[in-house]
Amino acid sequence: MTEAPGSAGPNGTAYAPGTPCWVSLMVHGMAATQEFYGELFGWEFRPGPQQLGAYVRARLDGHEVAGIGLLPVDRHLPVAWTPYLASDDVDLTAETVRLCGGTVGVGPLVADEAGRLAIASDPSGAVFGVWQAAAHLGAGITGVPGSLAWNELVTRDSEGVAKFYETVFGYEREAVVSADFDYLTLHVKGRPVAGIHGVGGALPRDRGAHWMTYFEVADVDAAVTQAVDLGGHVLRAAHESPQGRVATVADPEGAAFSVVRTRR
To answer: How far apart are CA 29 and CA 24, in angstroms?
Structure first.
């Protein structure tokens, strides 16, 4: 599911195009959300970039790992974790998204000296971000407890949307050979960076196609218990998977995410 713990990119450089490099959450209550994730993952928070309004970057042991921003009061948008996929040219990527049947909802726009971004959706409606790094490369560390472990697109069928992502980001794919498991792994330069899970009719009607963010934890069961104690709730109880023990929970505002203890 994930690589060994590492830094933002090879030797501190930017992430390779197509690689999930950041995750961000837009919420209604900044203080309560920071308290929840700070307690759960040990995050500390610093403000910025100012271009994004009320926005903070979560830090873990001195490394930036995620962003949390405030939703405008007049915008009734779903509260959900959004992955950002790296790009060398966000304008070109945005145009390719449109040409391939996707939609660009925000941007491209400049986020101060940090970089340039766009927020888009694929033809199935799943929302993702595009990030062209400048001063801010993305997550400074991954694969350790409290940091990003994996990103997975949950959709009706993997094949139906895989060509979109292959064309836009140049992914190579590897299918899981199984009669009852519809899954593709997306690769950049020969390494797995994300997955597409086709769930057919099991796709939640209230969410539709969506990207699921996985955070690494030291103990899945303890993390689930703590999430509930902090006001979250369980969406799928802890269970064993080929990648390790995993569970899906929601924070107090309803944003779903998974916690995993990756088998190494």
So the answer is: 15
CA separation for the pair 48, 103 (Å, rounded) = 27
Buried b (16+ CB within 10 A) or exposed e, 79-113: bbbbbbbbbeebeebbebbeeeebebeebbeebee
Q: Is the pLDDT of residue 49 over 80?
A: no
- Residue 258's CB is within 10 A of a number of other CB atoms, namely 21
- Classify domain 8-140 at the CATH topology level: 2,3-Dihydroxybiphenyl 1,2-Dioxygenase; domain 1 (3.10.180)
Predicted TM-score (pTM) of this structure: 0.92
Distance CA 148, CA 116 (A): 21
Q: Which residue has the higher pLDDT, 52 or 248?
A: 248
Instruction: Specify the DSSP class assigned to residue 225.
Output: H
Side-chain half-sphere of 229: how many Cα atoms within 13 Å? Answer: 8
Predicted confidence (pLDDT) per residue in 93-104, tens digit: 999 999 999 999
Strands 127-133 and 115-121, sheet pairing: antiparallel
- What CATH fold (topology level) applies to the domain 142-262? 2,3-Dihydroxybiphenyl 1,2-Dioxygenase; domain 1 (3.10.180)
